[in-house]
Amino acid sequence: MGLAVIGFIATFVILVFLYPKYIDLLKSRNVSQVTSEYALKEFKDKQKTPIMGGLLFVLIPVIVYIIVNFRQIKDPNVLFIILSYVLYCSVGFIDDFLIIRSNSNDGLSAITRLIMELVYTIILFALFNHIIPLQVTIPFLNISVRLAWFIFLPFMSLLYMAEANAVNFTDGMDGLCAGVSFIALIPFVIFAFIYKYTNIFILLICILAGLLAYLVFNRHPAKIFMGDSGSLALGALFACLGLLMDKTIALFFIGGVFVAEMFCVVLQQISVRLFHKRVFSYTPIHYAFVIKGHSEKKIVYLFYLAQLILSIIGFIIGIKTL
């Protein structure tokens, strides 16, 4: 517990110190937001806000963890989490870099990004399949369905890519994605504590501190955005934790806001392409609330509340698989 406290304080203090300097650096290099093709006109004024804030809340918590708990750095569970977090961050970083360089939304093509995510997931499976429970446990029934590797690998790949892109869809308002991620991460912190996965617990506490420090500068009005560097990394983190702790069904609820965001986008796309009709006034769904006249801050707080309820439900479901 002592190392966790040290890691939390160190990560938070370092990032609160670094973010203003990082923001100034990004502004001096004109590394700023390019409005998403999904964004409403009301959000066009955010184009001058620096992006790639996620790079710091990915790297600094990992570095702090390595320093405060360097004797346990070889823990394969921790390496699996760190590598998932950093590899998917690298996909987002490349995408952000290309968007910034082109001064448009022309980053990685959808197919290129998915291929990179698939390749990274295969690498992760090859390196860590010996520690991943190749099963899906059904809560309350105490039934574990064992999966052969050639079935589990596509399942793992789909989970990683779905989570990464679901979190990415949620990143559209000041404080929304980071705040929802912070709340969604808490059940896994508790699971790590209950399971006595001490090293995982310390790492997750550092990541929580990173998100909290980022929120200091991302809350409305945001001074920096996480970009794909942060959103894809967070999605991979949730997928990794769900698999590692055998909480994939609980993850459906723990990441409920992300699931809802992606479901709405997919449903909208299917309806428009097949029937030429919209199901929702706008997607990602958080923008639909803007169209109905709600303020950005009110929407964010509403999503926080929804995520808190879903996290509690997910935790209850997850605890039944202990």
Mean pLDDT: 92
- Low-pLDDT segments, ≥5 res: none
Q: How far do the termini sit from each other? A: 22 Å
Radius of gyration: 19 Å
As laid out across the biggest beta sheet, the strand order is 1-2
In short:
The protein is 70% helix and 2% strand. It has 322 residues and is mostly helical. Helix 1 (2-28) runs antiparallel to helix 2 (54-68), helix 1 packs parallel to helix 7 and helix 4 (110-128) crosses helix 5.
Main features:
2 strands, 322 residues, two-stranded antiparallel sheet, mainly alpha, single chain
SSE arrangement:
Layout: H1 2-28, H2 54-68, H3 76-102, H4 110-128, E1 135-138, E2 143-146, H5 149-170, H6 176-195, H7 198-218, H8 227-244, H9 248-254, H10 256-275, H11 286-291, H12 296-319
Antiparallel strand pairs: 1-2
Helix pairs in contact: 1-2, 1-7, 2-3, 2-7, 2-8, 3-4, 3-8, 4-5, 5-8, 5-10, 6-7, 6-8, 6-12, 8-9, 9-12
Can you tell me about this structure?
There is one protein chain. This protein has 322 residues and is mainly alpha-helical. The chain has one domain (2-247). It contains twelve helices and two strands; from the N terminus they run ααααββαααααααα. The chain has helices spanning 2-28, 54-68, 76-102, 110-128, 149-170, 176-195, 198-218, 227-244, 248-254, 256-275, 286-291, 296-319, and strands spanning 135-138, 143-146. It has a two-stranded antiparallel ribbon. α1 (2-28) packs antiparallel against α2, α2 (54-68) packs antiparallel against α7 (198-218) and α5 (149-170) packs across α10. The mean pLDDT is 92.
